[in-house]
Design brief:
flat, 105 residues
């Protein structure tokens, strides 16, 4: 008897759920000696996330405005680079908030 009756999609789904649940459990458990986390810390983290989203959107808007009047190929390349920069700023804001505010006990 083995797991030959289980489909590949079910195994992938189970694996994804176990990976997500283990990381959530690991980051939600703080040792009792740390006590309750101050809500101000979470608020500051969410402000960092909001600032990253706003700065990323402003960066993308600025790049689109600066690329007006150029050829379509160069403008396309600049817009793709601006979009990538916006995503990087967003990920950076999320990473900064999660590492320094949300995942701290």
């Amino acid at each position: 008897m083995g797991i030959s009756g289980i489909r590949s999609k079910e195994v992938k789904l189970l694996t994804a759920l176990l990976i997500c649940s283990s990381s959530v459990h690991a980051t939600s458990q703080c040792p009792p000696e740390f006590g309750q986390k101050d809500p101000l810390i979470d608020t500051l983290g969410w402000l960092i996330v909001a600032a990253g989203i706003i700065v990323g959107a402003l960066l993308f808007t600025y790049i689109i405005r600066r690329s007006r009047g150029t050829g379509w190929l160069s403008r396309t390349i600049v817009i793709i680079a601006g979009f990538s920069g916006m995503i990087l700023v967003w990920v950076g804001g999320f990473s900064l908030a999660f590492v320094n505010f949300f995942f701290r006990c």
